Amino acid sequence: MSLLFLPGLFLFAEDYQQEYLRSYGKLRVQPLLALPLGENEVAGWNDCGSFFDLLNFYGAVSSNTSVGITANFEYVIRGRYGIELSFVYMREVVDIEAEVTALRISGSPNFVMPMLGANYHFLNDSSKDLYAGGFIGLGVIATGWSYEQIEISKDVALGVNAGLDYYLSETWSLGASVKYTDFGEIGFSVFPPGYSGLICDNGVFGLGHMNMITFTLGAGYRFW
Predict the structure, then answer these.
(1) What are the helix and strand counts (H, E) for the chain?
(2) Which pTM does this prediction carry?
(3) N- to C-terminal Cα distance for the chain?
(4) Eight-state DSSP code of residue 11
(5) For residue 74, is it within any domain?
(6) CA–CA separation, 61 and 35 (whole Å)
(7) C-beta separation of 118 from 81 below 8 A
(8) Pairing between β-strand 204-223 and β-strand 41-45 as defined by DSSP bridges
(9) Residue 112's domain spans which residues?
């Protein structure tokens, strides 16, 4: 009896491999909540020396709890190895404030970040997809700022993530993930209208080490 059972077991395993461990693409759109971790205060200063000391220069940069959205496309090879391209939008990630005599600068720019990552899918069947991996952030673009110019000197950020997709049908899924992002040393510089290059590169400057943990929850669509 056991000998008769073995061929059926092998056929079942082969069908499973063909059905769930084949290559596919997945598109996810997920709202996010980002929380700062560790050293979330960033020092502010101005590099114009004694001139701005006479004008009572003050500057500060601090990181915030932020909300936003992420959209990503992942191509999964043989149901296991995923290559992922993401675009992340986070609202009012930092507060920037500076004051020089009568001039006051304040605001909270938004971050737009493209990311490239790789995942390994540990458990992948008809109802669930459990995965973990790492990613690299390919720079930061600041938006939503009312002044002429803000620059963020961050070329690369590194992070790790883990997630679970629960399939509502063969194609649609509900998913959640948690991501840890280490921005490393990140710098900010702000130049108000009419001040850049007047005496020196006037403005507020900041530098610090930023880490964030991000939670996402949203929908996914898989296609073969």
Answers:
(1) 2, 14
(2) 0.79
(3) 38
(4) H
(5) yes
(6) 16
(7) yes
(8) antiparallel
(9) 28-223
Could you read off the pLDDT of 98-138 as tens digits, one per residue?
A: 666 666 777 788 889 999 999 999 988 889 999 999 999 98
Give the pLDDT confidence of 140-153 residue by residue, as tens digits. 887 776 655 666 76
Alpha helices in the chain (DSSP H): 2-20, 50-54
Residue 6 lies in a domain: no
Q: What is the pLDDT of residues 3-36, one digit of tens each?
A: 544 555 444 444 545 555 789 999 999 999 999 8
Quick one: tokens of 36? 């700062």
| Residue 197 buriedness (CB in 10 A; 0-12 / 13-18 / 19+) | exposed
Cβ-contact 124, 82 below 8 angstroms: no
Q: Sign of torsion, CA 15 167 29 113? A: negative
User: How many domains does the chain fold into?
Assistant: 1
CATH value at residue 111 = 2.40.160.20
Q: In this structure, is residue 135 part of a structural domain?
A: yes
Cα within 13 Å of Cα(61), Cβ side: 24
Tracing tokens 């500060």 back to the chain, one arrives at 60
Q: How far is CA 36 from CA 65, 94, 110, in A?
A: 6, 10, 15
Q: Which two tokens stand for residue 102?
A: 């009568």
